Amino acid sequence: MPRRLPALITLSIVVLACAHVWTQPRVAQIDWRAHGADAAHTQHSPADLITPANVSRLRVAWTYKTGDGRADNRSQIQCNPIVVDGVLYASSAQLKIFALDAATGREKWVFDPFAATSGDAQHALGVSRGVTYWADGADRRIFMGAGPYLYALHADTGVPVERFGERGRIDLRQGLDTDATGLSVVSTTPGSIYKDVIVVPTRLSEGPGRAAPGHIRAFDVRTGQRRWIFHTIPRPGQPGHETWPTDAWQRVGAANNWAGMAVDEARGLVFVPTGSAAFDFWGGNRYGANLYANSLIALKADTGERVWHFQFVHHDLWDRDLPTAPVLGTVTRAGRTVDVVMQATKTGELYVFERDNGTPLWPIEELPVPPSTLRGEQAWPTQPRSTLPPFSRQEFSEALLTSRTPEARAFVERQLVGAKPFHKWQPPSEEGTVIFPGFDGGAEWGGQAFDPATGTFFVNSNNMAWITHMLPIDRTRETTQVARGRRHYQVNCVACHGADRKGDPTRTVPTLVGIETRQTREAVADVIAYGRGQMPMFSSLPEGVRADLLAYLFGDAPKEGPKEADDDVPDIPYVFGGYTRLLDDKGYPGVAPPWGTLTAVDVGAGTIRWQVPLGDRPEARGPKDPPTGTENYGGPAITAGGVLFIGATNDEKFRAFDMKTGRTLWEASLPAGGYATPATYVVKGRQYVVIAAGGGKMGTRSGDTYIAYALPEPGARPRARTRPVGR
């Protein structure tokens, strides 16, 4: 008996401890109130009910089908839904906005912005990465972009707010301090709120033709009136004007924010990452460093006044937009606690700055880079490099080429014949230039997550090689309508649809070969003028130019016309040959795995905690080889419970990882790829994680389903909908 007493005492202590845990009050509600979870864009939730110990028990809690996915696999859903007071708000494949009961998936309302509109608005569908919520007492609003408009809806009903702009919407082509008539200006990423203003990202054309400027604007959330504007292409007398040709502000476009922003509400700062200036790949007509393109800009959120900036790419020739919203956090560096802003890049690097003044937390080097060999181009002689360890591969060489099969390697080698020697900053060329990491990163638009408890930054990234060529513009002095149309196609269409007009299914770009057998002339003319899906509007092109394009696309008989060969062709010597992935003979990446990774970075220590492949294509590797990783789009959501959730991969899986180790804990097969960032929230004491399975990228099938997962409720019968991994 005496020898059993310690065991009994120990058992009693365990029982009492367990009873204490079981009787802890469960948090009834935790929201995911903004794109990226919060104003700081941390993609982190304080919810902790799902843990590494129980995540394998996740099951489908509810599904919601939007009903408007396209059967031709050309629709996508890239939305990170928000959840406020038990209501989920999100967008569909065709940009309908809806509200659901977040616990059951039951529909509360749907708003279709195109139901009662016509002209350019109903055609420029594109994608939506989510919505924005604002409230002041009983006045609760949802803001969403569709076509060239920003809408304000009553959060309870989905009905437009009549007193906002013109009957519930404002035209984003207006208020740019320049005439943007006929130009493409849309908002695909949710705006950011500071008090009673919304700062709105815009997506613009970046081709060789005329493009709208990417000035940053804030609007009054109640009225829609513009409150301030920051000129990303500075005007005479404004700082940065000296980094452009004197007249650039009158003719150069883009340098816009499309990836989203982060707001420091306490400091009253909005951190805005920008993209490249137009034209993306030849800048002989915009010589200079080109501030504030490719920059992180800290602006006073109430006035738009610049506080500081840092430029990541000088005189961009590679379409190296900052692809994602920055992330705010607090870290400890050398014993000092610092509030920082973290920015990931397409080049696979992480830059960290002190929020107050832009001082780099880790040194940044300025390194010499190769000159351009293109006529009229003057590449900037140096480019920055972060001294933090990169999270994507930085070097491309023969040793990195695929060894999947001898045939696969030979196929890839043939594509590289004559290409310029690799350098991360090798300028575009006629011979061919390898872009690595590829045009879509490194980091991309899905966003990154930051854990405030450990100071860890989580980023998924691509290790894909792409190759591109610059094509001299054909200026042969021909006057037939078809010849002119071929030239206009080369200038305006080749970058996406290709010189062979075959398009790119991996980027949801349709083929134009044989279009005369599938579409009427009127329908194609309509799309050229007003855009559709990912294609911007070209109504700014003269009517005669659009007629020439139709003659070329529909194979009209040669017919003399009154125009000269060079009329309406931009005064540039080259066009971009297209976004071409370096793939092998079976369509797998032309480099050795891993093709996609998930990385945890200790920001304060400046080290990689862990890195693992993200996704798998088992048919492309040996049975004993590690997972291949896959190209991926969409970011992670992390929790205080220690679990990271992410879809993103083209194997159409949804996964949970241990935040401490990177070990895969659980996975589920989705009805289509989850190319969107998930959200997690708590309603009535139960934690959910939801993701949009919209598919449609990388040549995969499209879908129209939102799926929410949760742990089984007490007494519920288990259903074999998902499976644990490695257990």
What are the defining features of this structure?
single chain, 727 residues, mainly beta, Cytochrome Bc1 Complex, Chain D, domain 2, six-stranded mixed β-sheet, 43 strands, 28% strand, globular, disordered N terminus
Write the layout of secondary structure elements.
Blueprint: H1 5-22, E1 29-30, E2 44-45, E3 59-65, E4 82-84, E5 87-91, E6 97-101, E7 107-111, H2 120-123, E8 132-136, E9 139-146, E10 149-154, E11 169-171, E12 185-186, E13 192-194, E14 197-200, E15 203-204, E16 216-220, E17 226-230, H3 248-251, E18 262-264, E19 269-273, E20 295-300, E21 306-311, E22 327-333, E23 336-344, E24 350-354, E25 364-368, E26 382-386, H4 406-415, E27 433-435, E28 449-451, E29 456-462, E30 466-468, E31 470-472, H5 481-492, H6 494-497, H7 521-530, H8 543-553, E32 574-576, E33 580-581, E34 596-602, E35 607-613, E36 637-639, E37 643-646, E38 653-658, E39 664-669, E40 679-683, E41 686-695, E42 702-710, E43 723-724
Parallel strand pairs: 2-36
Antiparallel strand pairs: 1-40, 3-42, 4-5, 5-6, 6-7, 8-9, 9-10, 10-11, 12-15, 13-14, 14-16, 16-17, 18-19, 19-20, 20-21, 22-23, 23-24, 25-26, 27-30, 28-29, 29-34, 30-33, 31-32, 34-35, 36-37, 37-38, 38-39, 39-43, 40-41, 41-42
Descriptive account of the structure:
The chain has eight helices and 43 strands. Strand 20 (295-300) and strand 21 (306-311) form a beta hairpin. The model is unreliable at 1-24, 119-124 and 718-727 (pLDDT under 50).
CATH superfamily of the domain at 474-571: Cytochrome c-like domain
How do the strands line up in the largest sheet? 2-36-37-38-39-43
| Form type | globular
Number of strands: 43
Taking the sheet with the most strands, its summary is:
6 strands, mixed
What fraction, in percent, of the residue positions are helical?
10-25%
> What is the class of the domain at 474-571 in the CATH system?
Mainly Alpha
- Second rung of CATH, namely the architecture of the domain at 474-571: Orthogonal Bundle
Parts with pLDDT < 50 across at least 5 consecutive residues: 1-24, 119-124, 718-727
By CATH, the topology of the domain at 474-571 is: Cytochrome Bc1 Complex, Chain D, domain 2
Structural class: mainly beta
Tally of helical runs: 8
Rg estimate, integer Å: 26 Å
